[in-house]
Amino acid sequence: MDFEFRPMRYPEELIKPMRDELTRLGVAETRTPEAVDAAIRDGDGTTMVIVNSVCGCAAGKARPGVALALDHAVRPDNVITVFAGADLEATERARSYFAGYAPSSPSIALMRNGEVVHMMERRDIEGREAGQIAAVLTDAFDRLC
After folding, report:
1. What is the 3 state secondary structure string of 85-117?
2. Which one-letter DSSP state was computed for residue 145?
């Protein structure tokens, strides 16, 4: 018997509030590979890509840290998100741009011209509080945006 692994998607009613936390901030959802490509390849300037997740460090650290960072005077030109476990193909496409980084949820990439110029992987997020994540991000914004 052949077995093919097919990841399951989280039910939309479960993750909608988690999506809304970012979209309320003006973060654009990219739910298809084509939308990811358009945002990363065709976006001018810098693009922040947030790989959202249902995990506790996304809820208590990453999303609140992003919210604080987006209040900063200097920001990326574009801010997009994909949802790991829901937007499977879009997440895979976003991760394809993160050369040299293992798949990680949550994660936050700052990109310019389709290349990662700053990355926060899960391991960089889970040991910090939201304010510390925001400080790392705003420092990157000041240097790279």
Report:
1. CCCHHHHHHHHHCCCCCCCCCCEEEEEECCEEE
2. -
Residue with tokens 């939201």: 130
> Quick one: 12-144 is in which CATH superfamily?
Glutaredoxin (3.40.30.10)
- Look at residue 7 in the predicted model and tell me its pLDDT: 67
Alpha-carbon radius of gyration of the chain: 15
Phi, psi of 15, deg, nearest 5: -95, -10
Taken in order 71, 74, 135, 38, the sign of the CA dihedral is: positive
Q: What is the pTM of this model?
A: 0.93
Domain ranges for the chain: 12-144
Tokens of 71: 């209040």
Q: Which residue numbers are catalytic? A: 55, 57
The pLDDT score that the predictor gives to residue 43 is: 75
